[in-house]
Amino acid sequence: MGLDDSVLTVRGIGPKKAQLLEKLPIRTLRDALECYPRDYEDRTHIVPIRDLQDGQKGLICAVVGTQPVLRRIRKGMDITKLRAFDSSGTIEITYYNNRYAAALLREGEEYLFYGRVQGSGSRRMMVSPASEHILPGMRPPTRIVPIYPLTSGVTQKDLEKVTAAALEECGGGFSDPLPAALCRKYDLIGLKEAFRCIHRPQSLDEVAQARRRMVFEELFLLCCGLQRLKERRIEEPGLVFDRGTPEAFWAQLPFPPTGAQRRAAEEIWRDVRSGKPMNRLVQGDVGSGKTVLAAVLCDLAVQNGYQAAIMAPTEILAAQHLESLGPIFSRMGMRCELLSGSMTAAQKRACKARIASGETQIVIGTHALIQKDVVFARLGAVVADEQHRFGVAQRADLRQKGVTPHTLVMSATPIPRTLALILYGDLDVSVIDELPPGRQPVDTFAVGEKMRQRIYAFIEKQIADGGQVYVVCPLVEEGELPLKSAEEHGAALKRVLPHRRVGILHGRMKAAEKDVVMNAFAAGELDILVATTVIEVGVNVPNACLMVIEDADRFGLSQLHQLRGRVGRGSRKSYCICFGADKGEQARQRLKILCGTNDGFEIAKADLAQRGPGDFFGKRQHGLPMLKVADLAGDLQLMQCAREEAEALLHDDPALAGYPLLRERVDRMFRADSGEIFN
Ligand code: ADP
Ligand code: MG
User: Fold this and answer.
1) How far is CA 614 from CA 351, 391, 564, 618, 620, in A?
2) Which residue among 84, 106, 141 closes a domain?
3) Residue 438: inside a domain, yes or no?
4) Whether pLDDT at 49 is above 90
5) Atom 15 in ligand 1: which residue has the minimum CA distance?
6) C-alpha–C-alpha distance, residues 225 and 159, integer Å
7) What is the CATH classification number for the domain harbouring 343?
8) Whether 529 contacts 470, CB under 8 Å
9) Is 228 a member of any domain?
10) Which of 22, 30, 615, 667 could staple 611 via S-S, CB 3.0–4.6 A?
């Protein structure tokens, strides 16, 4: 027998049960080992009956004092009652529709009972407790009981059975993917011991030990994988851009760069002259001026005879990039154009022909730009805006097409540095931690429903003063609680402010329809734009000075901060108003953080601490392989160690030749989620 054998090899597991187990999904003994309990019940401390607390779970060691009495309450419902006692008091034990459990209990014998306690004094009772017989003269078999995730037809007992078999199977030596030296250095228990502690812990401390080891392993595997991607890239030859300097570019800008922009540009410059493909993330708060860095890279590419592509997540943003960068590029004598989904077929064909011939030097568009039918004469640099939509697998994809342009990704989701180093472990990171001068903070207020009329009056006032207003509603998913949908709310606003021009933008509209509305707002032809979060990413309407967010408690703090970044882009004093402050204490506290600071990194830190990384990034938004145990926020320290060790190990042994098992596990982790990355 081996760990990769089917659970069918376990005595007592037949084909039917095996099929049910597949849902968990457990097919092999190894799967069983890796099916971690979702919780543990501490049944190690026997509590005197007298000390049991109403509403709490407890373990007692008691003698059954009366024969169980069965009573039928109504059709299909019976109840079995008995009394049990220890030296401190008595308790009633009750089972509903479970004659079997009660029938196992015999008067005069001693049992362990574990369950939730109701009532106190002589009315104390325990409903449907788990029981375990204590043989005369034996020590009560107290233990920590793992609680497994279940599916219908599968019981805790079944899982105990298969995990027991799996543990036995790994009994005779078990190879550990973690190098032994690391285990010693960080005081980590071995893998075999960890599995034992996970499935059969003798104390909660053992559970914590096992968890720490598994978290380290997982982060270490993740970092090794990312580091392998990085090392492999470093081994590839990259284009060398040895002509041009950022200084020459700055001279063409209408404003001097901030210190942070200057630093990031230097880093880009160093990368593109290194002889290795650049793969760099620029992280900076909304409005910190990341676009200029895209231009720096494009400029270097063109000066060295290559083409550059700028990819934006939406057509609207692509058009805006053209608007802001186009004039700079043309002043520098570069040919730049937009490849847009809304162009006619003939226009697209002509545009692609100019890209293929090399006539167009810089092209701006959506992801469609790097697809097969767009052929570049000499693509030397790619900029991807808003990187969180762009996963590890996609980045690898780009390389597998045989293109090794220098790549710059820009993200406005500020992430604490330690975390960024993991999440973007295959990238180098530049941080823009400084805003252009003269930027006014956006005054932010959290309000409740009773302020609504006053807020409408405030909206009216801003428009009367010549400003424009965004109103954002959360995305409404089907069958959800009644929340404001953009359509309904837009209609309501039109009734409240009948003489104002209100545009509505929501996810079900076609891209071209969205463009029409967005462009009208940007051109000042609409006073109010009511939208779902489609406007979240990067749009620039400097005349907009008020952002109203409905049901703000439904958004993550970082997302709210992004939305707020849509205003305060021009000279107007700007405001952000969040509805939802009356939705409970937690909502109020969260919104308070937003009102208290305009610093995206601060907000990200608070957000991460409050929600944990799962919610912070949304489902798989980070594009990393699924993490099973590591809570990224909680384990920053461990994470740092795992990363440093992975870096050191791969530096010495880039192919992991000396660590075949580790290598296999890394491959498996990355393969499971995003297709073959290492091949
Ligand atoms: P983001 O980082 O959100 O992409 P942008 O690149 O869109 O920010 O820049 C926001 C605004 O700041 C733009 O209007 C841009 O022209 C302006 N800007 C960028 N850098 C500077 C600077 N160094 N000095 C003054 N204004 C700047
Ligand atoms: Mg931007």
Assistant:
1) 41, 16, 23, 6, 8
2) 141
3) no
4) yes
5) 289
6) 32
7) 3.40.50.300
8) yes
9) no
10) 615
Is the whole model's pTM more than 0.85, yes or no? no
Query: Which residues, other chains included, contact 190 with Cβ-Cβ below 8 Å and sequence gap of 6+?
Result: 174, 176, 183
Cβ proximity of 625 and 674 under 8 Å: yes
Same-domain pairing of 391 and 458: no
Range of the domain at 308: 246-274+289-411
Ligand 1: centre distance to CA 70 (Å): 77
Q: Whose CA is nearest to atom 16 of ligand 1?
A: 289
Residue 474 contacts residue 554 (beta carbons within 8 Å) = yes
Arithmetic mean of pLDDT, 267-296: 91
Q: What is the mean pLDDT of residues 114-126?
A: 91
Asked if 390 and 451 sit in the same domain, the reply is: no
Q: Which of 249, 282, 288 to mutate to test the pocket of ligand 1 (most atoms within 8 A of CB)?
A: 288
Residue nearest to atom 19 of ligand 1 (CA): 289
| Ligand 1 site residues, Cβ closer than 6 angstroms | 255, 257-258, 261, 284, 286-292, 412, 436, 540
For atom 6 of ligand 1, which residue has the closest CA? 289
Q: Which residue type sits at 229? A: L
Calculate mean pLDDT across residues 48-71: 92
User: Ligand 1 centroid vs 354 CA: distance in angstroms?
Assistant: 30
Q: Is residue 31 part of a domain?
A: no
Residues 250 and 390 in one domain: yes
Locate the ligand 1 atom nearest the alpha carbon of residue 288 and give its number: 2
Q: What is the CATH number of the domain that holds 118?
A: 2.40.50.140
The 10s digit of each residue's pLDDT in 459-486 is 999 999 999 999 998 876 555 555 567 8
One-letter-per-residue 3-state SS of 430-494: EEECCCCCCCCCCEEEEECHHHHHHHHHHHHHHHHCCCEEEEECCCCCCCCCCCCCHHHHHHHHH
Between 22 and 630, name the one with better pLDDT. 22
Closest ligand 1 atom to residue 256 Cα is 23
User: What's the 91 CA to ligand 1 centre distance in angstroms?
Assistant: 71
- ∠ CA(484), CA(487), CA(489), 5° rounding? 45
Residues 404 and 364 in one domain: yes
**Nearest Cα residue to atom 9 of ligand 1:** 289
Q: Examine the domain organization and report whether 402 and 456 are in the same domain.
A: no
679 confidence band (pLDDT: 50, 70, 90):
very low
Ligand 1 atom nearest to CA at 324: 16
Strand 57-64 relative to strand 110-118, pairing: antiparallel
pLDDT digits (tens, 9 = 90+) for 560-607: 888 898 898 888 899 999 999 998 888 898 899 999 998 888 887 787
For the stretch 544-565, pLDDT in tens is 999 999 999 888 888 888 889 8
491 and 549 together in one domain: yes
Assess whether 264 and 318 both reside in one domain.
yes
What's the domain count of the chain? 3
Residues 395 and 535 in one domain: no
Alpha carbon 341 to chain centroid distance? 30
Query: Residue 156 domain-assigned?
Result: no
Q: What ligand 1 atom has the least distance to the C-alpha of 261?
A: 23
Q: What distance in angstroms lies between residue 648's CA and the mean position of ligand 2's atoms?
A: 35
Site of tokens 């005369």 = 136
211 CA → ligand 2 middle, Å: 40
Mutation probe of ligand 1 site: the residue of 263, 291, 574 with most atoms within 8 A of C-beta? 291
Q: Is the pLDDT of residue 73 over 90?
A: no
Q: Which atom of ligand 1 is nearest to the CA of 255?
A: 24
User: Cβ(250)–Cβ(672) under 8 Å?
Assistant: no
Percent of the chain with pLDDT over 90: 37
Domain end call among 88, 116, 141: 141
Q: How far is the CA of 314 from the centre of ligand 2 (A)?
A: 12
Q: What is the pLDDT of residue 380?
A: 92
Ligand minimally distant from the alpha carbon of residue 283: 1
